[in-house]
Batch of 4 targets.
Target 1
Amino acid sequence: RKVGLAAALPALLLVPLTLVRCGGEPEVKYLAVTASPTLATAIELVRKANDLDGDGFGSLLGENDCAPRKKSIRPGVRDMPDNGIDENCDGRDFSMRDLIQPSGPTVPVPTAFQKPWNVLFITIDTVRYDYTSFGGRKTGPKKRDTTPRLAELVSRSASFTFAQAPSAGTMASVPAILTSKFFHSGIALDEKNIKPGMPPRLKKDNTTLAEIMKRGGYTTGAILTHEYFNDWGLEQGFDHYDNEIGKTHDPWRVSANRVTDRALSWIARNPHGKWFLWAHYLDPHAQYVAHPGEKSFGDGQEDLYDGELHFTDKQIGRLLDELVRLPGGERTIVVITSDHGDAFGEHGFFGHAVALAKEVIHVPLIFHIPDNPPRQIGGAVSNLDALPTVAALCGIDVSDLSFEGKSLVPQIFYGKEEPDRAVFAETNYPNPLRAAVTSKWKLIYNMKGNFHELYDLSKDPLEKANVASREKQGMEQMRPILDAWLERVVFSRDASMSQAAMRMGKVLLESAPTPTHPTPGVTLDDGAIEVLGFDTTTITSGSKPSVVVFMKVVRRPRRALKFGAVLWGVAAESHDGATAIGGEQARSLLRVTLDGLLPSDRWKPGEIIREELQVTMPATWSHPFAAVGLVASGTDGTAGWQATHPGGDNSLGFLGVVPVAGVSPTQPAKPSNLPTLQPRGM
């Protein structure tokens, strides 16, 4: 036994000596740490042995403690300006002279910050701002310190206190963040080859953040955690694209620790040149799970969510701790944001994706730039701003590209807030919603129902009181802003770069058709719309025929109209529509064109519109012919027709008569017990 110990002693001494000699090589160190607990312990022993001031950093192992006997001086701390001391060991004392804003029409990155930066770009799934320690959870009623490590990072970073996600779910937000384009209204998508349960794939027409970083000479990598990333088109521009963790579906998966391990390993393998790494942490996304041995806040859903935040925060903290020990850590920008939040019943729903409420789209946005003084920056911003900001920080020319976001360099370096700026958000499920947000107002537009919600955030930050009907000033300020964005983005008609425009192809025709039943001289909305005619599918008792109405836009309609079809029984094909509607009838639901994605007040002169409406015929239908009428009523309740029409209903226009198959013209009509129906909305 003594002989064995004697033989092992040289080996035990050799390990630390080897680490002292070679452990400064990042790849060696992190391969050792991740491969063997014993070697990890040995590395920690060497670190402690040469950490003379107890600040967690030594002079060996490549950790660059430039003042081994001064605890306040080490990599990663804030360098106090103009004191003649290099506190963070980057080789220079930071000076406030570096942040004097130059004159001119543009605001450049200060000369002192024009460096060959590395970029660590972290997206954390499902982080609502107000549940973070720095966003109010620590000082709120429950006093929970959910994200202490991120709070520490915020204390030495530029942190945006009112950042808005572009959408309410991962599927739409992540591609938007990585392209600075809105998913439903600006990204080219392959919607013909969608795999079951997967989002539509991004086409190569898009330019991703990774491709922009390649322009700047960066080595690019991604560490991801969800099955969406398997074949989503987001791999464009990445030299290393790792979704091994998220290869299969597992909503209970714990992955934050593995993301950090893989991120450190990738960084260690790329110690030379400039690198860009995107890491996506998934754990705060439902299903929430407990983490044995970690801090627990309880067993309820909110409690577990807080625990997920704390666990993920700890793992990100570990990544940041090791990053500053690595060569190049002192010139690494860290960007942290989230794709959306989660609701816990504040507005009558749980989870996300279905609404644009505060708890779903108000997210963190943090830029840590070594030596830059910390700032808490107000005013509405979007995490679509991250891409153009990173490009500006890294000196990459993107003048040939267009983005929905804008560079935040003026805020980050010079503290120039934009309190009146409006940013936007969207979701399509279950109803298409679009929102404009400023620091004072939030306006949400339900496109299918064609109604607005307005919230005065200065008085109602929790968005509980819809004041759209009584806040004239707020509506007058916000509606033109939202309408201009809708016109430019949603109603752009660019089918190559817009989901909405692709769907518009179903109702926007390239040329005027020749309808089976022309309707010369029939107009709507005081002549703004000419009804060219209609077609129908075969109509029988109990069937669900479609009535297809063709319209030409003479001039832009002055309001959004809801359309519906009405069929009512008549005895002869010569019926002129002047008499009242009888009891036997069938109606479609009223709806805005394309469920609000192309309302009539957005139609343009010269466009040809195809409106398809489906009715359900009663099984007892007995009339040999059906008169066809078009209901057109404003979403404000006003009639779309100006003349008197069947039954004196100014919302209904008579278009013509069609036969009902299977009912003989000589067959006497059976009386119907169905009541006369009134137009109804969706």
Note: The longest strand covers residues 561-570.
Target 2
Amino acid sequence: MQIDYAYYEVKTSKIQIERDRIAKPSPTAATVAEEPLLEELLQAEAAVRQLRSSVITRTSDARRGEATTIDVTDSMHQQLVLMVEWAKRLVSFSKLPMRTQVGLLRHFSAQHLVMCAAFRSIHLDDAVWLTNETRLHKNSTKVPDVNRVAARIVDQLTVPMRRLQMNEIEYCALKAVAFFDPIAKGVDDSYEEVDLSRQEVLDAFERYVRFVSPLREVPRRLSQLLLLLPPVLGIARDLVEDVQLAKLFGLASIDRLMAELMLPGENHHNEEKMEDGSPLYSPAPSIHVHTSEAPAS
């Protein structure tokens, strides 16, 4: 066998050039070493993913398929519980007064549902992948009440996320930017603290995108990622409207947690408690699992 040394010299040269170009550590490794805040966000995400997985494993594969109304509401409940667990793992959140924490959770709840659904569905072209492993097609006939939201999630968020090749680090950072909103209702007394938390996330996010990301040479990448937030907010408002209508007309079962987080205007008896006096969230909220009609949460 004759070796083409000229070919291998060219290949070696190209390999060296590529090595020089990616001389920096991998995104995750660099984040661990240089951006503790991003690592904290990744750890929080991993923790709630593990919690979700421990519940999903109780779901039979036979029950997975096209989502029903029960699947959608169960998935929303699960995701709100996971949102609380995620927030509790953020140091800056845990230091805030209870009233501020509740304000942030309420303000972010619908956005959280939208962002999680969009990123989780990045491998799909025309459907939303729910937490209970069911699919909500954007033109679903089984759940027509949320078609508008599902279609907007796919077209305005999932498709752009896929086009941008958005990774988990960027997703976690973007979620935290949306979460720490200093102008959220009920956050007035902690405006400076919440704003500082958001600025710290933005700083770490910018450093990652500009200096660490494999796509750091893409022009205006940070801006393109941040521009996903306006549609997130718009779709979240549509989702809240759908929940309000579903509750008003009895189209779906809206549990207490969903009502308190997504429809707070209806329950202002106590900013930190539910209508029955129980805390809005406990140290370890549980995920309700259906064992018959609906897939497990």
Note: Residues 5-33, 282-297 have pLDDT under 50 and may be disordered.
Target 3
Amino acid sequence: MQAAINLQGEQVEFQERKEKHDLRKEIRSLLITVGRLNKRQFLEYFADNKQEQVGYLLHQMVQTGEICEPEEGVYLQDARFLDASYYKTPKIHGSENVYADMQQYERHLTQLQKKQQAFWVFLDFKKRMQAQDPVAIDSREFPFMLLAFWADGCIYEILEILEGEESQLALLTSKERYESITGQVRRIVIIDRMEQIEGLKRYQIHGIAGYVTVDADGKTCYQHP
């Protein structure tokens, strides 16, 4: 009887270790994809798991150096992302190009913030449509495209068009990247203000499924096209 009890206890312990291992792996994977997330985003993503366990693992992973926490409740994959020296460009005639380095640094920080904002939109679709995990869109040609995911038989792309930068959508008009599967592509456009919508419509971009504003706390407000 004692042996059976011990075996059962070992099985429970093994299962708990496996669950923690899988959660750590998912946390790292999300940070690799998005780059920057806050604690509430993690808790909402892992809503089906014990939130106390997720919070504990985030703290533990920071302590062990697996991830970093540059400010309370905000997590990055790598602390180097906040170090300007990490973004050194090739030297020109033996001299450092400080201006180019700083531009690259600022662009990367901006992309981290944008992808974190786009993750709030993804979470909405995860709750409503069981969306699959997102992938990052890292494109020099389409820098305003942030994340993509699969849901309800369609590819969804999350774009962000800041006020005053609406003309960037002309890039999609002139060159569609999914000519063979355009019927399966849906695009959600993050905007600063709903007043941008009329100006964006004139570009007649394929697959626009909706517009959304995202505030600093992650609250989303959608508008159908």
Note: The chain has two domains: 2-79, 117-223.
Target 4
Amino acid sequence: MRSLLFTLFLLLGFQLFAQEEYIRSFHSDLKVDASGLLTVTETIEVYAAGNQIRRGIVRTLPLSGTDYRYKTVKTEYKVIGVKMNGQDSPYDTEKQQGSLYINVGDDSFLEPGWYTFQITYTAEGQLGYFEDYDELYWNVNGFGWVFRIENISAAVQIPQEAEFLQSSCYTGYSGSTEQNCSTETLPDGRLIFRAENLASGQNLTIATGFTKGIVSLPPPPTFIEQFGLLIFTGIMTLVLLVYYIYTWQKYGVDPPKPTVIPEFNPPSDLSPASMGMLHKGYFWGELISASIVHLAVNGYLRIEEKSKDQLFGLFKSTEFHLVKLKEEDDALPKEERKLMQYFFTNGNIAVIDGKFSSHFKSMYQAYMNSLVTEHKPFLTQGSNWKFWLGPVFIFIIYALVARSFDFGNYTSSNLDFNLENVPILPLAIFFMVFIIISLIKKRGTNWLFFSLIGLLFLGGSYYLFSKSAISLNNFILIVFIVFAVISFFTYIYLIRRPSEEKLDLRARIDGFMRYLSAAEERQLQMFNPPKLTPEVFEKLLPYAMAFKVDKIWGQKFQTLMERASLQNQHRTSWYSGSRAYSYGALGNHINRSLTNSINSSSGTNSSGGSGSSGGGSSGGGRGGGGGGGR
């Protein structure tokens, strides 16, 4: 019985092994001719079981790589022919994800068994040209194969006038320096490399140096190929700067600003939220607290702050009860009417406890929309957006023309530069901002200092990137993109030209804020300010909150009350809290606490290298790629 079970086990194991898809033999014939053209013939013997190999195989070849100078270069392949079991086979090619895919086979399914595929292709520019020798440094199979390889070999043929001077081979995963491989010279003069038992994702890399000067050097790049993009980028940058400066000087220079004079009442009867938004130029969440206090000061509601014990009195939480005192009317600004409608939908008391509420979120959105809708036309007035189209048109032309230049492609090795290279580009970008603004405004002597510093960092970044396999064209493109983005947004800011009416209103708003933010009353005496009474303090407190000067406003009033010994003779009727606050702290406390609760409730909150001399690694040369079934 045991013998029978053992026999069945062996048969089952043999069957499972027989069904495994793998490469029994991968042989590559590499022929280098005197022109430098490399002809590759790959003979791949695989076992197909219908798992991944159903209709044929896929061979992938990288469309870019790093040459002997560590520069990124493109690779163009020409497929000469494809065979399966000695017969011509249908195939198609496609480029995607930085690789050339050679799909061997048609739509017919293959029967399980052994199949031999042969792929022949040529590639130019695959050699390295060193001082004492020329070199072929080649990844035979690449790291992308999903199958294990039982036997792998590569035979190299060079012109008859040349002789092999040195050779090395490497096996394993990418970056491995293992040399589990052998080298032998064949009777016909070819050099053959062999290795065995490569796991999925492992590669055989071969490198051989031979007599220098037999193989023709590649033609040098033309002047346009070398410097075309640099010249074109310089021209487009000049055009862009001329456009920026001309349109800014003609349409973007602001009219003279009115003199800011302190004002003692809200200009144009603006609400606190409107005042704060027009002052800042955008909406922000703290405005809602100013609106609530404004409603309270005007008698529409009362604010009751309550403290609650949490976790057996170890902690305390704060919640606000808003008690409705009278109905909203047309005297209220639109955004405050929205608050009244949402707060008191289901009664006369609204509780803000810091817990998320979809109702409060809707209220917050409606409040914001009301302010944005009302003031967006005024805030965007004079934006001169039509002048933005000029730079956009220039960017489109640049992108279309730049595509015709050779950039190479980024590979993992290109991105693997030293850590000291990383901070230089952000610093270069940072100082480019100073260059642009300094050249336009030229304020004082700092513009020259920052321009020199910026150029120093840009030069340093180019030097470091030039050591990191990034070509000149790639660097030019990076710099232009950075320049284009920064200059465009700087231009958007500078081309805005507010009307005299807009400047006048802003001057009045600034004057009103100057009154509220003046720490000492005597600073304003020459302008005959009104007497600061408790009523005036409360009336203007919401505006101080909207300007974020409520603490200064409160302290100023507190000082006056203390001088008059009246600090204990007035109590506000629109607010009650669990603790007593001085006037100097009351507004600031309400602003911080109320804003935090509302936000929570609404949920807003190096030189070149040789491989044949022994300094290489698996995957360090050209070629490579991988493959699989289809």
Note: The chain has three domains: 22-219, 272-382+500-597, 385-495.
